[in-house]
Design a protein that fits this description.
Elements: H1 3-10, H2 20-45, H3 47-55, H4 58-77, E1 82-84, H5 86-94, E2 98-102, H6 106-111, E3 113-114, E4 118-119, H7 122-126, H8 132-135, E5 142-146, H9 154-164, E6 169-173, H10 176-182, E7 187-188
Parallel strand pairs: 1-6, 2-4, 2-5, 5-6
Antiparallel strand pairs: 3-7
Length: 189
């Protein structure tokens, strides 16, 4: 063997006999380490959200944010529309001082609705299929429009249209039918 051949043999990498399973184990170990670190950091940075989720208040906070967003949107687009909360709407309901208008589809209305409410989908109202003056002749009647709550805007559409037709006391129940039902208030199925 010549000197050149011996030098090449001596300079060959010593780690060429490395176990390939060991490389994959190290990669997997590193990945698991980073995943654990990400979970830990995610938990620390989102602790208040996680705490709200575990104690059950997260859904309420999300619904409240959706309601605030809907209120802000209505104030920007539909001036003069007032929102009413569940407690005030229930008081008007109990005192029989308001007419409740369901802005959801007729199928949703038939499935379940606020007891005594009237189905008035915006599409039918806008197309002239439903004549509000036949349903509610007195334009000073207190009207409470509702839909699916949260980000549903059908009740806002009804309120805007009724306002343009001269109705003066229109409210939107921001929590909608789901809020009413969750509160245990009267419904018809």
């Amino acid at each position: 063997m010549s000197i050149m051949q011996q030098t090449k043999t001596d300079s060959a990498p010593k780690h060429s006999h490395r176990n390939p399973d060991l490389s994959w184990r190290l990669i997997i170990k590193d990945c698991l380490y980073f995943i654990a670190l990400a979970i830990l950091l995610g938990g620390v940075l989102n602790f208040s959200i996680l705490a709200d989720a575990f104690n059950g208040s997260l859904t309420g906070k999300i619904q409240q944010n959706q309601l605030e967003s809907l209120k802000a949107k209505s104030q920007q687009i539909y001036a003069g529309i007032s929102f009413i909360d569940l407690t005030a709407a229930k008081q008007l309901y109990d005192d029989k001082l308001a007419v409740f208008l369901d802005a959801r589809t007729l199928n949703q209305y038939k499935t379940a609705h606020i007891a005594g409410s009237i189905s008035m989908p915006p599409r039918e109202l806008l197309m002239g299929i439903t004549d509000p003056s036949k349903v509610v002749p007195d334009k000073k009647t207190v009207l409470i429009a509702y839909c699916d709550g949260g980000e549903c805007e059908l009740s806002l559409d009804i309120a805007r249209e009724l306002s343009s037709q001269g109705y003066q006391n229109i409210f939107v129940l921001g929590e909608g039918y789901p809020g009413w039902e969750t509160a245990g208030y009267p419904i018809d199925k």
